[in-house]
């Protein structure tokens, strides 16, 4: 299946289908100042679709808000297609088609048919969120939103006022 033919319904099915991690005991790796953890998952709905799930954190001092957790579908042709990406607040993001800027707030990228047809990055659209503030909170949201089993995560309490 060519990515150009993916519809929002098919993308949603890929996101919400039940999945189970194949390697829940994967180890963290350090690379270029980032700590990254990669997982492999497989759909448990009989389709055997494969996915890559990652959690990435910038380890440089003062860069705690530079993180990302994401999920990609591994198409039968071997290509990877990013379905969702949960980013920290370290940068602003422009939704190109909508001309909407998300300024230095945590945001969730979502692949859409609209962005594919516009020949933009499929996950170029993003929505702001207050559901997480850290990479572990973002990872929990991804695991929950994308119906992944086989790993325990903890929700982040984001409605507490800051002491500083």
Secondary structure topology:
Layout: H1 8-16, E1 19-21, E2 29-31, E3 34-43, E4 50-58, E5 67-74, E6 80-87, E7 93-95, E8 100-102, E9 107-110, H2 113-117, E10 125-128, H3 135-145, E11 148-149
Parallel strand pairs: 1-11
Antiparallel strand pairs: 1-3, 2-3, 3-4, 4-5, 5-6, 6-9, 7-8, 9-10
Defining traits:
164 residues, alpha+beta, nine-stranded mixed β-sheet, two-stranded antiparallel sheet
Choose one word for the global shape. globular
Protein structure class: alpha+beta
Q: What profile does the largest beta sheet have?
A: 9 strands, mixed
* Low-pLDDT segments: none
Average pLDDT level: 93
Number of distinct helices: 3
Strand proportion, as a percent range, falls in: 25-35%
Report how far the terminal alpha carbons are from each other. 51 Å
Total beta strand runs: 11
- Compute the CA-based radius of gyration: 16 Å
Helix content: 10-25%
The succession of helices and strands, N to C, reads HEEEEEEEEEHEHE
Number of domains: 1
What would your notes on this structure say?
- This protein is an alpha+beta fold.
- The chain has one domain.
- The chain is 15% helix and 35% strand.
- It is built from three helices and eleven strands.
- The strands form two sheets. Strands 1, 2, 3, 4, 5, 6, 9, 10 and 11 form a nine-stranded mixed β-sheet that branches. The protein has a two-stranded antiparallel sheet with strand order 7-8.
- Strand 4 and strand 5 (67-74) form a beta hairpin.
- The longest helix is centred in the last third of the chain and has 11 residues, at 135-145.
- It is globular, with a radius of gyration of 16 Å.
- The model has no long low-confidence stretch (mean pLDDT 93).
């Amino acid at each position: 299946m060519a990515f150009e033919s993916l519809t929002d319904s098919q993308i949603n099915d890929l996101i919400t289908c039940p999945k189970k991690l194949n390697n829940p005991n994967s180890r963290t790796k350090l690379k270029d100042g980032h700590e990254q953890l990669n997982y492999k998952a497989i759909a448990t709905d009989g389709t055997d679709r494969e996915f890559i799930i990652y959690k990435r954190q910038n380890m440089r001092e003062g860069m705690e808000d530079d993180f990302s957790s994401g999920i990609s579908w591994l198409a039968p042709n071997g290509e990877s297609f990013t379905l969702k990406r949960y980013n920290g607040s370290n940068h602003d993001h422009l939704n190109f088609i909508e001309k909407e800027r998300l300024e230095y707030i945590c945001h969730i990228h979502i692949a859409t048919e609209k962005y594919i047809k516009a020949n933009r990055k499929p996950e170029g659209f993003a929505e702001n969120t207050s559901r997480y503030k850290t990479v572990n909170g973002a990872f929990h949201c991804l695991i929950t939103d994308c119906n992944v089993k086989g790993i325990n995560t903890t929700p982040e309490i984001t409605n507490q006022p800051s002491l500083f």
